[in-house]
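Q: Could you fold this chain for me?
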Amino acid sequence: MVKPTYHIHLDAAVLPAPLLDRMINEGGFHLDDFPHQLEVEGRKVEARHLTKYLYAPTNSQAAKAECLKLKNWANEYNFKGLIQCEFVMEESQWQQKLNSDSVIKAPFTITSRSLSKRRGDSFKKHEIHLEVNKLMSSPMVINALRECGLHILENETTVTFTTSVHSIEMLSIRRALKKFLATHGENITAKLTYEATAFWSLHDIEPETLPAIVNEVRLLQ
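A: Sure. Below is the predicted structure, expressed as structure tokens.
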């Protein structure tokens, strides 16, 4: 299976119909909605989410050109939201072979904070996503991950643990997850993805209103 090299996302608080039509029919984006909100002009609204995958041999210059084209389109309309492009640094997968019923401890816990211009933040630098198949994974492993403090997106079949981080915190979480999954990987069916922000553009959105980033990582194992 060919894996994408870059993900381009558009999060929209206000998404005019002509822009949506252009993105899908001309830009090659697809709707990829999940429950979340954006804050615009002091009020929170339900957001729409669109995604486009870029595959090798796409390089950084070509990815940036795609982002700038999308930014120009957004500027033509009354778009409010954000555009971001993520480079896929690493992707790993696990397939369940065992089903442990032993109690498993969380590998780490995190605290979070808002982006802050005062602290030099402009946008998050990395994202981590651990997508777990609930039907093919040990509940004990999933429960341990729930205790980490990561943001959770969940439906009947899948639970995704995700967080936004800067570089130092990302390395700490990566090491902890790598050790945890080396021990418990046979009890889980999951995909772990590390992404680095390659491009971002805010449109009537303040950084402080975006999802929180990791403030501190406390290693427990």
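A (continued): The longest helix spans residues 167-184.
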